[in-house]
Amino acid sequence: MTVTSQRPGLSDLVRSATVALLTVVQIAVAALCGRVAGTPIGAVAREYATPLLAAGWAFAIWAPIYAGFLAYGIYQALPAQRQRAVHRETGWWLAASAVFNTGWVLAFGAGWLPLAELLIVALLVSLAVVFGRLSRVPADGVVERVVLRGPVALYTGWVSLATASGTAATGVWAGLPGESALAMIAAIVVLLAVTAILAWVVLSGTAVVAYGAAAVWGIAGIGLNDPPAAVVVACAVAAVVVVAATARRVTTAGNPARAAWG
Length: 262
Fold this sequence. Notes:
With 262 residues, this protein is mainly alpha-helical. The chain contains eleven helices and no strands. It has helices at residues 2-31, 33-37, 41-47, 62-77, 85-109, 113-134, 142-173, 181-204, 208-223, 229-252, 256-261.
């Protein structure tokens, strides 16, 4: 009986320590990506530019994402938090997301776009699993909303757009045109498809304010990066749809606070 009671504590300690360590690693690698990977990510992205490339200022969203992830890494490692079910159900997935993000930064910076594409898809999947699991149960107070629900929603919303942009860049790497009429049409089709997915997530999830804000930020970054006029229109439509879906979700939910913030 004593052994059984000790095992959960040990496994929780290992998980929380792993998450905390990987939190620091991913932030350090991101901060040093130009030196570690060889080329700054922005320079690589511009080398394989497409109509879905966001403006440079849009990537400033990584600052609150990493700050939130760091706060989460500290929060989940606190003794009172380690054995909570919410961390047991999401901790290893968030640890995996840190690994995938670190790998993506290194692969993209090195110009290995196919590998980077696989890693960002894996990152999106891991975040989507966490986002879905968090949507099942309400947050345990304001602190959890601020350091767990909000950062995960913000991260997932941004990566949803980044995955589409990364796929387009990988296509250019493979030889597809990045500035032709075909590229413009493909960008519009992808934007509309992504918008439909974003709206569905917002209408069915929680912490949708942060998720929707990140999505709209990414859409604005694309639309304001001087793409073809048709892509600008598609971005405007996408932003309106996401904002409207977010407003509808919050105003019609039985618990507006939970729908908005988790």
